[in-house]
Amino acid sequence: MPVEAVRDETIGVPDGEQARQTMTTTTTRTPLLAMRQICKRFNAVEALVDVDFEVYAHEVVALVGDNGAGKSTLAKVISGVLQPDSGLIEMEGETVAIPSPSAAHDLGVATVFQDLALCDNLDVTANLFLGREMTGRALLADAQMEDAAKKILRDLSSRIPSVRTQLRDLSAGQRQSVAIARTLIGSPRIVVLDEPTASLSVAQTAEVLTHIQGLRDLGLGVVLISHNMNDVRAVSDRIEVLRHGRNNGSFDASSASYEAILAAITGATHQGYRSVPRFA
Amino acid sequence: MNAIPALKDVFTRGQRQSDPDTPRAPEQGGEPRVVGAVDALRDVFTRNLRQSGIYIAFVAIIGLFAWLTDGLLLSPDNVTNVFLQYGYILILAIGMVIVIIAGHIDLSVGSVVALTGAVSATFVIKQGHPSWLGVLVALGVGLLVGAWQGFWVAFVGIPAFIVTLAGMLLFRGMTLRVLHNISLSPFPTDYHNIAGGFINGVLGGNGYDVFTLVVAAVGIAGYAYSQLRNRRGRIRYQQSVEAFPLFVLRLVLVAVVVMALAWQLAHSRGLPVVLIILGILIMTYSVITTKTVFGRHVYAIGGNLSAAQLSGVKVKKVNFWIFVNMGFLAAVAGVVFSSRSNGSQPAAGQMFELDAIAACFIGGASTTGGVGRVTGAMVGGLIMGVMSNGMQLMGIDQSVQQMIKGLVLLLAVAFDIYNKRRAGAAR
C-alpha cells in the first residue's frame, strides 16, 4: 500500500511536530498544492476573486470565513468539482488542470464533502472503495478490499464494528470516520475536509480531530474547512481567512489571537495573502 | 409485577450473550452470536422473516394453490407450463430489477418484446431467412432500442419514466408498422423449439429424464456451497447469522423444492429449453450485480446519486449500459415469447412491463432505488406466475384475478416498508 510507504518516512520520529521540522530543513519547500489568482463567478456572483492558497506536506491548513465567503467553492475547485474561470493550479511546482473528481483523485487529492458522499445501501468496504474498486479476473476482489479497509480503519484507529456493516447502521461519527478513511484509498497527497465536524457530538468531534492529526502525521497536506474556531485552533498549523471571495489574512495557528482571526473573518481588518516562509 | 424484573433479566442476558466481545461460556460452542431465547424468537420474527419472508410467502402460496386445485398445480405438465408461460416475464424482471436498483423504471419493455418479435417474424416467416438470423436481428434491434433510451436517460438527462413512456408508444407504433397490422405465423420448427423445446433423454432414463435430475442436483450443491461460504464469511466478521438449525432448514427446504420440481419436470416432457436460458441468465446476472464493478456502481447510483458522482463513478456511462442491457433482455424475451406463441401479433407483450415491475417489487426491490436482488425478482415473478396459473386452473374470473394480483403487489410492498420501519425503530 502506498499509505504504508508514506508512513515509513515518519518511523523513528515519534512526534508529528518533529517530523515536520525535519521536512522543513531537508527539502526545498515547494508547496504540494499552490493556487494562484483563482477566480470563479456564478453568473453575477463573484465566488472567488484572485484567491491565493498553498498547502504543504505535513501541515493542516484551516480555511475559515463567514457563510458565503467562498470556502466550499475553493474546496470544490481543488477537488475538481468546479472549474476556475481563471488562475493557476500547481502541484509540486507543476501546472495542472483538475477537470473532474476522478482527475483530482489521480493527482492525489482526496475530498470529504460537506454532504457526506457515502452510499447508505452499501457496506463500509464498498463505500471506501467506491469508484476505485480493486478487481481480479474481471470480478471484484472483495477479500482484498476488506483486508485493505481493515488496515486503513486501524491506521485511523476508528471504531467501526465491522467492515461489512451497512452505512445506514452507523452513527454520524462513525460515518464521518468512514468518509475520512475513504480519502486514504489510493495514494493521496492532499486531503480536503469540508466541515467534517458540523453535525457531530462533542465526543465524535474529538474523534474526528484525532483522525485529522493522524492524516498530518502520515505526511499529508490537510485542508480543513470549518466554522468552529475551537476545532480549527485545536488541530491546524496555519489559518487562512476568506472574506467575500478574497484572501483576508493568514495566521500562524499557534500564535494568532482569537480576536485577530475573528476580526479578519468579520471584515474589521483587511489584509492580503501572506506568502511563505511561515515556519522560519 | 414480579414478572417484569425477570423478563428484563432475560432480555439483558440475551443481549449480553449476543455481544461478540463478551467471552463465551464453553458450552455455547463456536457460534459467534449465541442468542438468548427471547432474542432467538425475536430474530425469527424480524430479521429472518425479512430475509426469508419472500421465500416463506412463495412456499405458502404454492401450498395454498396446490391445496385449492387438489394438487393439479404441482402436476408435472402444469409445473412445466408455469415456466413456459412466465419465462419471458422472468427474463424481463432480470433486466428490470437492475433498472429499478439504479432508481429508474422502464415502461417500454412490453412494446420492445412486441417489436423484436415482429422483426424476427418478418425476417424468418415473411422473408424466409434462417431462424438464427432472425434471432440475431431481434437481439440487434433490442440493443439499438436500449442504446436509444439509454442515450436520452443518461446523456440528455430526461427521467427514465418519460423516456420509456415515450418508448412504449414509439415501439408499439413501430411494431404495427413492421407487421402492417397483421399477425405472422407459424415459425419453422427450429425457431419454435427455442421456447417450446425440451431436452429429454440425453443421459437416458426410462420416462424419467436423468439429465434434468443431474442438473438440479448440481444446482443445489452449488447453492449450498455458496451459502455456506457466505455464512462462514459473516461469522468471521462477527456478523449476525441465523441460527444453524434454521440455516440447515432453509437449505433443506430449497433442496427439497428444487428436487421436487426437477422430478416433476423429469417425468413430464424433460427440461424445457426456456428453463436453461433462464438459469444461465439468472446465474450470469447474479454475478454481474453482486461481483462486478458495474453492479457495485448500479447499487451506488441508486443509493446516493451525488455520492456516486463525487466518488468518480461514471454515472452517465453506467446508466447508458443499464438501458442497453434492458433492451437486450427485452429482445431475448421477445424471441422467447414469439417462439412460444409461434408467431408475432401486433398486440403482443402488452402489460408485460407491469408484470416485470411487479415481480421486482414483490421480490424486495425498493421504490427509491439502491435495494433489490436478481434472485428476489425471480421469486417475485414466480409468485405472480404461480398465482395466475393457480387461479386459471381454478377457473377464477379474469377480473377477480387482476384484483387479487393488484392487492398482492400492494401488500408485498406494504409489508416491506413496515419491516424497514420496524428495523429502523429497533436500532
TrEMBL record, chain B:
Gene transcribed to yield this protein: gguB
Transport in keyword set: yes
Annotated membrane topology: Multi-pass membrane protein
Pfam families: BPD_transp_2
PANTHER family named among the record's database cross-references: ABC TRANSPORTER PERMEASE PROTEIN YPHD-RELATED-RELATED, XYLOSE TRANSPORT SYSTEM PERMEASE PROTEIN XYLH
UniProt entry tagged with the keyword Cell inner membrane: yes
Described purpose of this protein according to its UniProt entry: Part of the binding-protein-dependent transport system for D-xylose. Probably responsible for the translocation of the substrate across the membrane.
Protein name: Xylose transport system permease protein XylH
Transmembrane domains' residue ranges: 52-68, 83-102, 107-125, 131-148, 153-171, 208-226, 247-265, 271-288, 318-337
Swiss-Prot/TrEMBL keywords: Cell inner membrane, Cell membrane, Membrane, Sugar transport, Transmembrane, Transmembrane helix, Transport
InterPro entries attached to this UniProt entry: ABC_transp_permease (IPR001851)
Superkingdom of this protein's organism: Bacteria
Subcellular location: Cell membrane
The species this protein was found in: Cellulomonas alba
Main location: membrane
